[in-house]
Write a structure and sequence with these properties.
The protein is an alpha/beta fold and about 350 residues long. It has eight helices and 22 strands. Strands 1, 2, 3, 4, 5, 6, 21 and 22 form an eight-stranded mixed sheet that branches. A five-stranded parallel sheet has the order 8-19-9-10-15. Strand 1, helix 1 and strand 2 form a beta-alpha-beta unit.
């Protein structure tokens, strides 16, 4: 049994940011990472992936992201930066460790890994991020076996695909980037479930995120009217490449996909097409099936929290979308939430010491 004051579950950008503040405050902690290396959550994504936030907005606390500040880093640059960060601060990380059980016990929390390793901690930070369980609709099972299907989290590059047409289902940023890449070699159709909103990556030679930062959109507190307005807007597609291909009819567009049979997929407007390849850019669903703590999740399986502080004393979340602000799930802003959680941990520790002092008088 390994015992620590704090255990962080997840070694991505959120977990590393939390580790920075715990180390700064001389806490006894460890980071449990399911991956083999720091940065693998980025390293294992599709080859052409790049971040739409420039390097100047991708720094974790205390260490600048290397390279030209206004340039857009590739996913491998992001991965290497996270590995550099972990090594620079000598953060204590146990790799290849997937937590399969988290339970509340009398004096804290009990954790068990898939290898059978056991851990105990006074406080736990769940930093597994928003990309947990890839979602593919059940109607995908209606396709013939020879249709190539892959979720965007597994897709790597065009060489994996079979010859012929491609249907990309889902029009978030991943779906948009993949559709643009595949349109160079394939006949591509993209299926969308909502109206797409495109934003240029740069405006007057400055990143669009520079403007967002200047007017306070990324730092908009979740409880403000501005945040309420932003949350109602559809996901923004950064970059105009797909918009231009759609205008030129180089990429075809269809509404939401609703069923599949054989080689044919049907859409909600009644139309249908045939496809040889299907890329499911349909996002992720939360997966906290390994958590056995009453009152932590709502009826839909989502975390209950206020700025990452759960209703369970000593249990925290970090790296969630809109955890406290628009930028909470982005690399350059997650550190602000980590610092806030550190403050709550210190406050709880002081309260506990004060309570013990009262009992001993």
């Amino acid at each position: 049994m390994i015992e620590k004051d704090v255990i962080i579950i997840g070694g991505g950008q959120a977990g590393l940011s939390m580790g920075y503040y715990l180390q700064k405050n001389q806490c006894d902690f460890v980071i449990l990472d399911a991956k083999a290396r720091s940065g693998d959550s980025w390293r294992n994504r599709y080859d052409s992936l790049f971040l739409f936030t420039p390097r100047m907005y991708n720094s974790l606390p205390g260490l600048a992201f290397p390279g030209r500040p206004d340039g857009l880093p590739t996913k491998d640059e992001a991965a290497d930066y996270l590995e550099l960060y972990a090594q620079h601060y000598s953060l204590p990380i146990v790799f290849n460790t997937t937590v399969t059980l988290l339970k509340k016990i009398q004096n804290g929390f009990y954790l068990r890994s898939s290898q059978g390793d056991e851990f105990a901690a006074n406080q736990v930070v769940i930093a597994t991020g928003p990309f947990q369980k890839p979602f593919i609709p059940t109607f995908s099972q209606g396709f013939n076996k020879h249709i190539y299907q892959v979720h965007s989290s597994i897709y790597r590059n065009p060489t994996e695909l079979r010859s012929g047409s491609v249907l990309v289902i889902g029009a978030g940023n991943s779906g948009a980037q993949i559709a643009v890449e595949l349109a160079k070699q394939h006949e591509v159709t993209i299926s969308i479930g909502h109206k797409m909103s495109f934003k240029p990556l740069y405006l007057l030679r400055k990143s669009i995120f520079w403007y967002f930062n200047q007017i306070g959109l990324l730092g908009a507190d979740i409880h403000t009217k501005r945040a309420s307005w932003l949350k109602k807007k559809p996901e923004q597609i950064y970059g105009l490449e797909l918009k231009n291909l759609l205008s030129a009819k180089t990429v075809a567009m269809k509404p939401r996909a609703v069923s599949a049979e054989g080689e044919t997929i049907r859409f909600e407007d009644g139309s249908s097409i045939q496809a040889n390849n299907v890329i499911w850019a349909t996002g992720f669903r939360p997966d906290y099936s390994w958590v056995d703590v009453d009152g932590l999740l709502d009826s839909n399986g989502f975390p209950q929290h206020e700025r990452g502080v759960s209703p369970i004393d000593g249990l925290y979340f970090l790296g969630l979308p809109w955890q406290s602000r628009r930028g909470s799930a982005l690399m350059g802003w997650v550190g602000q939430d980590a610092e806030y959680l550190m403050g709550d941990m210190i406050k709880n520790q002081r309260s506990a010491i004060k309570f013990v002092g009262i009992l001993n008088t």
